[in-house]
Write a structure and sequence with these properties.
0% of the residues lie in helices and 51% in strands. By secondary structure, the chain is mainly beta. The strands form 2 sheets. Strands 2, 4, 5, 6, 9, 10 and 11 form a 7-stranded mixed sheet that branches. The protein has a 4-stranded antiparallel sheet with strand order 1-3-8-7, with no helix packed on it.
Length: 122
């Protein structure tokens, strides 16, 4: 059974930093993800894309709103499929629930984590 577990959220002041982690497990050869991504959902808004990384080549892509401030990377300290999101220069508009997302390239298999709350406020 595939599980994605996020951690690292919390309350931070504007201009501060947080590092989110997502530990994923339970994959097989059939449903091993081609992409690992982060999405977020602000209060009263829909879920939006933040950043993505391919599991093979490590290619990355970011939403314009976070370019230059956020960095997605594989978390190689853990012996699982895991991904981190380093968030710097945080702004109040970065507040929301951050979700980890894993999917195969053909879209046949996709999985969401339960989310972790990030609040940027003074």
């Amino acid at each position: 059974q595939v599980q994605l577990v996020e951690s690292g959220g919390g309350l931070v002041q504007p201009g501060g930093s947080l590092r989110l982690s997502c530990a994923a497990s339970g994959f097989t050869f059939t449903n091993f993800p081609n992409n690992l991504s982060w999405y977020r959902q602000a209060p009263g808004k829909g879920r939006e894309f933040v950043a993505t990384m391919t599991t093979a080549g490590g290619n990355t892509n970011y939403a314009d709103s976070v370019k230059g401030r956020f960095t997605i990377s594989r978390d190689n300290t853990k012996n699982t499929v895991s991904v981190a999101l380093q968030m710097n220069s945080l702004k109040p508009e970065d507040t929301g629930v951050y979700y980890c997302y894993a999917a195969t390239g053909d879209g046949l298999f996709s999985y969401w984590g339960q989310g972790t709350q990030v609040t940027v406020s003074s």
